[in-house]
Write a structure and sequence with these properties.
The complex is a heteropentamer of chains A (527), B (165), C (476), D (100) and E (652). With 476 residues, chain C is an all-alpha fold. Chain C is 78% helix and 1% strand. Chain C has a two-stranded antiparallel ribbon with strand order 1-2. The two termini of chain C are 30 Å apart. By secondary structure, chain E is mainly α. Classes of the chains: A mainly alpha (527), B mainly alpha (165), C mainly alpha (476), D mainly alpha (100), E mainly alpha (652). Chains in contact: A-C, A-E, B-C, B-D, B-E, C-D, C-E, D-E.
């Protein structure tokens, strides 16, 4: 078997799954759930095949599929992945079954629609990550709005409608301008095909004037910045998260936000390097504000889910900072942090959802002392919080470290200020944890809450295992993303890319190579 | 002579039109309109369009206006009410309508004054018929459909509640 | 001079429509109440035949009837839209007419005649011929608007439509008169050459534009639209908001693209009108509580979008207009048809709240309706998206960047009110019970066809857009 | 011989009066009559231009306009009757069920 | 070379223990739980001992002995491996950590016998061992940071072990947060180090740094920045001014935890780190000065607070802070091996003191306030005598361990080119205070009459599993110092000799400037005399005040109200921090950032735009008046507009 149509299969399997779901009887909840889970698991297993089929030494797109689609203007059905998208696809396929399992018991109304939405969402998100045609990209980008809209609007909480509409309008505002940008780009380059456009830009066949490039960059960036969301475009996020059902939050935080940062890495940097360079300081400032601001605002939230939502603003700030530091290390870190955030925040939302299932509230005041009735849940919550606050050996640290380290090499001051966010993240997470789980049980109705069920435990174990795995064995992932990320920056090379400081200084010790300490060290390493 | 006649007919036509606007009772308005039409028929004659002139009298003044008067009588319409709910029409619409009219007059006069007038053949009716039934056969046939639709419409709209028997 | 065989071929759709209309009028009295279905079927067959008859003009493009008509890909394209609209309108009607106790035969005849009028409008290149076509269509429309004779709203809609329509027609006519005076002809391609008085021509073109802008509901001539669309019976609204609009746009476009003076003079008028139309339509739709009226306002907004493509004044723009018209016809017709069925007897349930919880009781209907709404909103995979996409493309190609951005902003405003309906249908608890489970076959067919068409155009637009491109080339 | 432009000017005056009449009148039938006045103005313009251009087309157009006017009158008056029957009023300002 | 080749086994054993207990412990009997925990720690102690043996067989050239396992983080130009290393310094730490750790594990089985969360406790404890061993075995800064943060986590968990108590969880949070501030410095130091040296491996950074030119005093160069940032980390972990505030609160944890983490091992990690990075520090006079001054100041500062505390553990806590100050003083004056030596002896005697205090508390049924103790000498003699050993050691009474190490530091402070008489004087003063408050503690607790209700509190000696570790540590407190008996006493400084290869740079630096070794002997003798005197004076004053004239303290407190309040209130530093940092931060976050900026400004704008649109719609809507005449008027408006527009364009 070869993997030549693997990407298409990945995109359309969930679609097919959702169609199959539609054929089931609406009140047959058990089989609806089972089928949805089966489809998403099959999808996950198939996506793992990507890792095998992927050649990590090859920086450009792989497993490409290209078909003519729309004749005028020339639009192709063009799929492909590279190191940047590879793991984002897998993250998506991983989080979908988890989201399905997380809502196994908590969704009892209009079950069919719910799982259909989840699967369509999955297909849309995967489509975004694997599209190499700008039109196709945009298509998937918009398509996934609808299932998310329904997920929030139908199965959400009290203010769900406000949140759902806000989410869609916010996103749509950005994306419609991106469509304008895409078309403008098409008018300049005559193609929607990303590799073709990249080639045209690389070869200098197409050159933008500075203003045009800035506008184009802006059109793309705005859409992505809203999705990320970058301060001050973030206010849809807390509402969307607070009101969304657990699975919605998991998918929203886990993968949807990544579409924004993915877009920056995929489009903004390679296509408009000069504009990116010009605007990077401003963007970095926003990212840093986001990091600190998000953290501080989370600190004072009274709603657990809102807190996690604001923490996303902070975390994604790191990612944006990493991308716009123009340093391969930082960008790798950013990519890694995208995955981390997907896992950790996804898991946090799942945990908050489990609390919600028991108590139907997210208010921290309504909890307190929960570690006594539910020690297992408390333990996992702590574990995930620690991953989120960047404890070494857990996934969050690797990403944050790489981002900050990489950024520091380029722009010391940015990294120093951003690193303060590391302190704050400990503040809000542990404080919230304390208020939720520690102390005596404050409300009687919390006294007899059941601890994690078998299903919940297995989910939590899975997440914990991934968190640990990603914290310990990061090269398994970074080695595959390396060459693609590097290529992004190679493509930007023609613009200024300052030489890292250490590369100049490194020469210094070599002068004293015969000094005893040096020899000593070399010997030690040699062994 | 024709000049005098023109001004006389034009004055009648304008007077009729103004009267149409100023009359309170619809019947008076309708009669004013008939005056305008007749005056126009005269003008058509002056322009050498005898056929049109005849049609104007027969169809327009005769048939259409009779229909109007018939309806007015049928509905027993009285004097116009003095309601004025629409500030828009009164304060914006009317002045602008006047401006529009004046503008048209100005530009039409401005443009048309130097254009040559072309004398017409003795009797235009025959060539007119040729034109109508050859070059403009298609729209002419189309008018049959138009009239069909109108008839259908009148039937549909004015018939007594028969559909619900 | 008798019309040649070729002429007849080029006129096939109109002929079929008229013949079918007349046949129905003839047969209806004999069919009686018992065999009313015969009339239904005849009407459907007639409309279908007319749609099929589009093939003839397609194969026999050229001028017809002493150059009064110009049958080309462009007119064929518009004919196809009109034929589809007529077919769908006819298919959707029977259950509605039954429900409201309205006569069938006349309705079909009027629809078919109106369609014939639209067809003439689409292929006319002579303004007088177009005028006659326009009037056939308009008069039929006035009658259809008041087809629910007992309903004061229906009457009122008809009256407003009639009065304002005639008023606008007078402008149109005076424009034609002035154009004739300025150029000595009313045949579009000859106007430029014949013009001896450019200012008079400008005057004429301005008045012509007023008349046509009224028909397509462009601001500030759009005010009749909501009242008429709201008051008219829903299937009629479906027809009115799609067919005549497409036909009027066709004439407007033909004039705009054929007459160079029009091309240069109208640009700013269209530009301004496009902006105002979009904003007025969307902003007002925002605050509507009646779904029907909201959709009426939305059709104003869509007219604005189409005008943006006009402003591009290019082949791309023409193709975009055509594609959008097709897409728009499908989705709007679908939406109004769904509405006509769901609103219940007497169209009592038109308020947004009446649609609360629809999805839980009529999932398929809600899904269809949502699809149309999403397409109107311009979401990918639907025809509406590609339509907007082509408009964007055309406008950008002509460097109308600000217009494009304004259109973009408007799409977002528009999203709000379309989503509100979806919110009601899916996210709120039901407040009433909906019409019986059994969907009338006609309605089902229309919804299916429209939905399928919407998706098809959204996913695989090649045939249509290629055709539109060809049509645009010919028109130039 | 009067210059044909006088006729056109007259037609413009009548057209303007028609517009004013339409806006000024409240009785539906009179409003309709104003439209007829406008159409008459159009006719006059056609005939005048026809004369000026030395063509007969203009007169043919008048013929069409008259036919259309007749058809409109038939349908329009039918609608008026419907309104009068349902509303017991011919005042256009009382016909405002549909608004906003 | 068995174990040296499998270095990973040392941290892995406790990790395994932690995992087993953490996952299954709840369902297992206590015996199994503590067997697993003790087994893991014991085995790793054994392994450490074995390594110590094997270590001597290594050729000097193969030290440090580095084992690289696999790459942990590799991205862009950055690369860090999981690599462990053993050198002399590590060896010392390894033995101290596993040894003291093992003893405390044993002690805990007794101490915790009746507490809930038994498995959880041992799981945490083992986890701590894992991280601490990772810290000391690390071969690069990043792996060290793993241990560094990890022990912080365990500290958090163990401080908040009694999570039902709000004060405990508060203290845990505080510990974590304050440590995070320090870690912020550590992180930045790593970034800067990477930028400067292109690597974080000790084997690369330290030799590279050694070959750099030293910075001039007063110069804030790269080295200074790296060193200061590292020191910031150390301040957090080792509770130095201004980040010491968490440690006293950390006493909320179970006593064995205080002994292990907050006295013997974790808190000394900062010292270890500074010592490990001594090359960097030595290149920066500024950094050295800062370290010395901060260390010295902290020593005095904490000691003064310790004078008036009544909670037995709080006294010990401040004493720990103070002793850590000594260690940094040592590092700051370049006497790194002295610092490490004090670290070791401190681990013995402070571990002992805490355990003994735990035993007292255990005996008193949870009572920690010394004012409600007294006269326990007879009732719990084992505890008394072992604790006395610890007190003597910390007070710097000759022959006990603390005497040697403290003396070494003080003399270095005086003699070292980095030091000075002021530092020394403060050190001596601190030694006096230390002796005083320690014996105050001893006398208040064990001497005099019972100040508690003897009927309600049944004072009992602790079980054997608690006493054995006490005994062992008491012995170590007695003899531990002899490892480094100064030449004066005819001994040989084995300890310094052992560490010499590691601190060669430091020795050369101090020697190069200090020079006059000959005259040092007599000065050292005088210094030692002063130190001994300080210790004895402290003891005597305490005896005078708490045995002889027991009413005196209160009088004193009465007469010096303000200073007493200041000391009792711990200089109100916590309150100061709360008022200047914590409260404003929360207030700004809530009122300004969240409610004003986020909700009102940003979201307000967004919603405002939506409202404006709706509002405009509402306005525009009124054009749709329903009146046909007005519609017609609009048509006329449009007609006029377009006619004018077109005419204008046509005429132009």
């Amino acid at each position: 078997m070869n993997a030549s149509h693997l990407l298409s299969v990945l995109v359309f399997l969930p679609m097919g799954g959702s169609l199959a779901l539609l054929l089931l009887r609406g009140d047959d909840h058990t089989w609806i759930r089972r089928l949805a889970l089966a489809v998403s698991l099959a999808e996950f297993i198939l996506s793992l095949w990507l890792i095998r089929a992927f050649d990590s030494s090859e920086p450009s797109y792989q497993l490409e599929e290209a078909r003519k689609w729309i004749s005028s203007p020339p639009i192709n059905y063009h799929l492909g992945i590279d190191g940047i998208s590879l793991f984002l696809v897998i993250l998506t396929t991983l989080l979908t079954p988890i989201a399905i399992l997380a809502s196994w018991k908590s969704i009892n109304e209009r079950v069919k629609g719910f799982f259909v939405c989840l699967l369509v969402l999955e297909a849309g998100v995967i489509g975004v990550f694997v599209s190499l045609d700008l039109f196709l990209f945009f298509l998937f980008w918009e398509i996934m709005l609808i299932p998310m809209y329904f997920l929030i609007g139908i199965w959400g909480h009290e203010r769900r409608i406000y949140a759902a509409i806000k989410f869609v309008l916010y996103t749509m505002f950005g994306s419609i301008l991106m469509l304008v940008g895409i078309l403008w780009l098409f008018n300049k380059t005559g193609s929607f095909d990303l590799p073709a456009i990249q080639a045209a830009l690389q070869s200098g066949r197409v050159v933008f004037s500075q203003n045009v490039e800035l506008l184009l960059f802006g059109a793309f960036f705005l859409a992505f910045a809203i999705k990320v969301p970058l301060f001050p475009l973030h206010t849809w996020l807390p509402d969307a998260h607070t009101e969304a059902p657990t699975a919605g939050s998991i998918m929203l935080a886990g993968v949807l936000l990544k579409m924004g940062t993915y877009g920056m890495l995929r489009f903004c940097l390679p296509l408009f390097p000069a504009a990116a360079h010009k605007l990077a300081p401003a963007i970095a400032v926003l990212a840093i504000i986001g990091i600190l601001y998000g953290a501080l605002v989370s600190l004072v939230q009274t709603d657990l889910k809102r807190l996690v939502a604001y923490s996303s603003v902070s975390h994604l700030g790191f990612v944006v900072l990493g991308i716009f530091a123009f340093n391969a290390t930082a960008a790798q870190g950013a990519l890694y942090q995208m995955l981390n955030h997907g896992i950790s925040t996804g898991a946090l939302f799942m945990l908050v959802g489990m609390l919600y299932d028991r108590r139907h509230t997210h208010e921290i005041n309504e909890f307190g002392g929960l570690a006594t009735p539910m020690p297992v849940l408390a333990a996992f919550f702590l574990f995930v919080s620690l991953s989120s606050l960047g404890l070494p050996l857990l996934n969050g640290f690797v990403g944050e470290f790489l981002i900050l380290n990489g950024t520091y090499q380029q722009h010391g001051r940015w990294a120093v200020i951003a690193a303060v966010g590391v302190i704050f993240s400990a503040l809000y997470l542990l404080w919230a944890y304390q208020r939720t789980f520690f102390g005596e049980v404050t409300l009687d109705k919390n006294r007899a809450l059941p601890d994690a069920s078998g299903r919940e435990r297995s989910l939590l174990w899975a997440m914990a295992a991934i968190i640990l795995f990603m914290g310990v064995a990061s090269p398994l992932i970074t080695s595959r993303t390396e060459s693609s990320v590097r290529q992004v920056f190679d493509q930007m090379k023609h613009s200024d890319n300052p030489q890292p400081v250490y590369a100049q200084r490194n020469a210094l010790p070599a002068v004293h190579a015969d000094s005893p300490a040096q020899a000593h060290a070399q010997e030690a390493q040699g062994r | 002579m024709t000049t005098l006649l023109f001004f006389a007919l034009a004055a009648i036509a304008v007077a009729g039109a103004v009267s149409l606007i100023l009359q309170k009772h619809p019947i008076h308005s309708a009669l004013s309109l008939i005056v305008v039409m007749v005056a126009l028929a005269g003008l058509y004659l002056l322009l050498g369009a005898e056929f049109i002139s005849a049609v104007q009298i027969i169809v327009y003044a005769g048939a259409i206006m009779v229909l109007f008067i018939f309806v007015i009588m049928l509905l027993n319409a009285g004097e116009e009410e003095r309601t004025n709910f629409s500030k828009m029409a009164a304060y914006v619409g009317l002045p602008l309508a006047a401006i529009l009219g004046a503008g048209l007059v100005y530009w039409v006069a401005h443009e048309g004054s130097n254009a040559p007038g072309v004398p017409l053949a003795e009797s235009a009716t025959r060539p007119l018929a040729m034109l109508l039934f050859q070059d403009y056969l298609f729209p002419f046939e189309l008018t049959s459909i138009l009239i069909l639709v109108a008839i259908l419409g009148a039937v549909v709209l004015a018939q007594r509640e028969k559909g619900e028997e | 001079m008798f019309p040649s065989h070729q002429d007849m071929m080029r006129l096939a759709p109109e002929i079929v429509l008229c013949v079918a209309g007349i046949l129905i009028m003839v047969i209806e009295p004999f069919a009686g109440r018992a065999r009313r279905r015969v009339v239904d079927v005849m009407a459907a067959l007639g409309a279908a035949a007319a749609l099929a008859a589009v093939v003839f003009p397609m194969r026999n493009a050229g001028l017809a009837f002493s150059d009064l008509l110009r049958v080309d890909s462009f007119s064929v394209f518009v004919h196809a839209i009109i034929g589809t609209v007529a077919l769908l309108a006819v298919l959707a009607a029977p259950s509605y007419l039954d429900r409201e106790g309205l006569p069938h035969g006349e309705f079909y005849a009027l629809v078919l005649f109106a369609a014939a009028g639209m067809g003439v409008l689409a292929s006319a290149q002579d303004l007088i011929t177009a005028f006659v076509g326009l009037e056939i269509n308009s008069i039929a429309s006035y009658i259809l608007a008041s087809y629910r004779r007992d309903s004061p709203r229906s009457n009122e809609a008809a009256l407003k439509y009639f009065l304002l329509g005639s008023f606008a027609t007078a402008f149109f006519l005076y424009g034609v008169a002035l154009i004739y005076g300025a150029s000595g002809t009313t045949v579009l391609p000859r106007i430029d050459a014949g013009t001896i008085q450019p200012t008079l021509l400008a005057l004429g073109l301005a008045l012509l534009f007023v008349g046509l802008a009224f028909k397509v509901a462009a601001a500030p001539f759009q005010l009749w639209t909501p009242d008429v669309y709201e008051g008219a019976p829903a299937p009629v609204t479906a027809l009115l908001s799609t067919g005549p609009k497409a036909a009027a746009f066709a004439l407007l476009l033909r004039t705009y693209m054929t007459v160079e003076h029009a091309g240069s003079l109208w640009f700013w008028a269209i530009y301004i009108s496009a902006v105002v139309t979009m904003f007025v339509g969307n902003l007002t739709a925002l605050v509507q509580t009646s779904v029907k009226r909201m959709l009426a306002y939305s059709s104003i907004a869509h007219a604005g979008y189409i005008l943006v493509a006009f402003a591009a004044h290019s082949e791309l723009g023409t193709a975009a207009v055509l594609f959008y018209l097709a897409a728009y016809a499908l989705m709007k017709l679908g939406a109004f048809t769904a509405l006509s069925w769901l609103s219940g007897p007497g169209e009592r349930h038109m308020e947004l709240d009446d649609y609360a919880g629809l999805a839980s009781q009529r999932p398929v209907a809600a899904a269809c309706f949502s699809l149309f709404l999403l397409s109107l909103l311009g979401l990918p995979v639907t025809a509406g998206f590609l339509g907007k996409f082509y408009i964007f493309n055309a406008a950008l190609k002509s460097n109308l960047i600000w217009l494009t951005v304004l259109l973009a902003i408007n799409s977002v405003i528009g999203a709000y009110y379309y989503l509100r309906v979806i919110v009601a249908m899916y996210m709120r608890p039901p407040k009433r019970s909906f019409p019986p489970e059994r969907v009338p076959a006609g309605i089902a067919a229309v919804l299916t066809l429209a939905a399928a068409g919407t998706l098809f155009l959204g996913l695989y637009p090649n045939y249509v857009i290629d055709f539109a491109n060809r049509a645009a080339l010919l028109l130039k | 011989m009067v210059p044909f432009s006088y006729y056109v000017v007259l037609s413009a005056v009548l057209f303007g009066l028609g517009v004013i009449g339409f806006l000024f009148k409240r009785n539906i039938i009179t409003m309709f009559m104003s439209i007829e006045l406008m159409l008459n103005a159009v006719n006059l313009a056609f005939v005048a231009f026809s004369r000026a251009l030395g063509q007969l087309q203009g007169q043919v157009f008048v013929f069409f306009v008259i036919v259309v006017a007749a058809a409109e009158a038939a349908v329009g008056l039918a609608i008026v009757i419907l309104i009068a029957r349902n509303r017991k009023s011919l005042n256009i300002e009382r016909v405002d069920l549909l608004k906003l | 070379m068995y174990v040296l080749n499998y270095l990973w086994i040392i941290p892995a054993l406790p990790l395994l223990g932690a995992a087993i207990n953490g996952i299954f412990g709840r369902r297992w009997p206590r015996a199994v739980t503590h067997s697993v925990a003790l087994g893991a720690t014991g085995l790793s102690f054994a392994a450490a001992a074995e390594i110590f043996r094997e270590f001597h067989l290594l050729a000097p050239s193969s030290i440090p002995w580095v084992k690289t396992y696999f790459t942990w983080i590799a991205a862009g130009s950055f690369r860090a491996d999981y690599s462990l290393q053993v050198d002399q310094l590590t060896m010392v730490m390894l033995l101290v950590v596993t040894g003291v750790g093992f003893l405390i594990h044993i002690y805990s089985t007794g101490y915790m016998a009746h507490e809930g969360g038994y498995a959880r406790f041992f799981s945490y404890l083992n986890l701590f061992m894992f991280f601490m061993l990772t810290l000391v075995l690390a071969a690069n800064y990043l792996v060290m940071f793993v241990g560094w943060e990890g022990v912080g986590l365990c500290s958090y968990l163990l401080i908040g072990f009694y999570f039902l108590r709000k004060s405990a969880t508060n203290a845990g949070n505080k510990a974590f947060w304050v440590n995070r501030i320090g870690d912020f410095g550590f992180l930045l130091a790593m970034f800067l180090m990477f930028r400067t040296f292109g690597s974080l491996d000790f084997g690369h950074v330290l030799p590279s740094a050694a070959s750099w030119p030293a910075e001039a005093s007063g110069q804030f160069g790269t080295m200074t920045w790296i060193a200061l940032l590292l020191f910031m980390g150390a301040c957090g972990k080792s509770a130095q001014i201004p980040l010491y505030v968490w440690l006293p609160d950390a006493m909320e944890g179970p006593t064995p935890v205080s002994a292990l983490i907050h006295a013997a091992t974790m808190v000394t990690a900062g010292v270890y780190m500074v010592a490990r990075s001594h090359v960097l520090f030595l290149h920066s006079p500024v950094a050295m000065l800062v370290v010395a001054v901060i260390g010295c100041a902290t020593a005095l500062f904490a000691a003064t607070i310790g004078l008036v505390q009544n909670d037995i553990k709080k006294v010990l806590a401040y004493s720990t802070v103070s002793q850590l100050g000594y260690m940094f003083l040592a590092c700051g004056v370049g006497a790194f091996s002295a610092g490490i030596f004090h670290l070791m002896t401190h681990a013995f005697f402070k571990g002992l003191l805490f355990l003994a205090a735990g035993s007292v508390i255990h005996a008193m049924g949870g009572q920690q306030d010394m004012r409600h103790m007294g006269g326990l000498r007879k009732k719990i003699p084992w505890t008394y005598w072992t604790m006395m050993f610890g007190a003597l050691a910390i007070a710097g009474i000759p022959v006990f361990a603390g005497f040697f190490s403290k003396d070494e530091i003080l003399s270095a402070a005086y003699l070292s080119p980095y030091g000075g008489s002021l530092l020394w004087a403060v050190g001596i003063l601190t030694a006096l205070l230390t002796s005083f408050y320690m014996f105050r503690l001893m006398f208040l607790t064990f001497h005099g009459g019972a100040r508690y209700d003897e009927h309600e509190t049944h004072v009992h000696e602790s079980p054997k599993d608690m006493l054995v570790p006490l005994a062992v540590l008491a012995v170590l407190s007695l003899i531990g110092g002899w490892l480094a008996a100064p030449a004066l006493w005819g001994g040989k400084d084995h300890f310094a000799g052992f560490l010499a290869p590691v601190f060669s740079a430091a020795t050369s630096a101090t020697d190069a400037v200090g020079g006059a070794a000959e005259s040092a002997g007599s000065i050292e003798r005088q210094l030692m005399a002063v130190a001994i005197a300080a210790g004895l004076i402290g003891l005597l004053v305490a005896w005078w005040m708490y045995i002889k004239r027991t009413e005196l303290p209160e009088k004193l407190a009465e007469s010096m109200k303000a200073p007493y309040r200041l000391l009792e209130g711990r200089y109100f530093v916590d309150e100061l921090y709360a008022a200047t940092i914590v409260k404003p931060l929360v207030w700004i976050s809530r009122r300004v950032l969240w409610q004003s900026v986020d909700e009102r400004m940003i979201d307000g704008t967004v919603n405002g735009v939506a409202d404006a649109a709706r509002h405009t719609g509402e306005k525009v809507r009124h054009a749709e008046s329903g009146n046909t005449r007005s519609y017609a008027a609009w048509i006329v408006v449009g007609a006029v507009a377009f006619v004018s527009l077109l005419l204008w364009r046509a005429v132009k």
